[in-house]
Design brief:
about 90 residues, mainly alpha, about 0% strand, elongated
Length: about 90
């Protein structure tokens, strides 16, 4: 009885343009399967080598900012001039 009355109300409310059976939400597609098996353990030798490489690169990057000349050293004459008094 309840189904017929709902169907009748839907037809009246929508002027008969919508069928009561089409008001259900569409079904979602199935989700794709996840990865087969996730890695669980890391070889200690690999992680130690990775950490050593990271430290080596960090140390090398720090030294690069202190080198102010190229491989040939300074090729120009030093800029020297006479001392002046400030405000004179």
């Amino acid at each position: 009885m309840c189904g017929k009355s709902i169907s009748k109300i839907v037809k009246v409310a929508t002027l008969g343009l919508v069928d009561a059976g089409s008001l259900e939400a569409p079904k979602a597609p199935d989700a794709p399967a996840g990865p087969a098996d996730a890695p669980t353990a890391v070889d200690p030798g690999v992680s130690q080598a990775r950490e050593d490489e990271r430290r080596r690169r960090a140390a090398a990057a720090g030294a690069g900012s202190t080198i102010l000349t190229g491989a040939n050293g300074l090729n120009t004459a030093a800029q020297t001039g006479q001392k002046t008094l400030l405000g004179a």
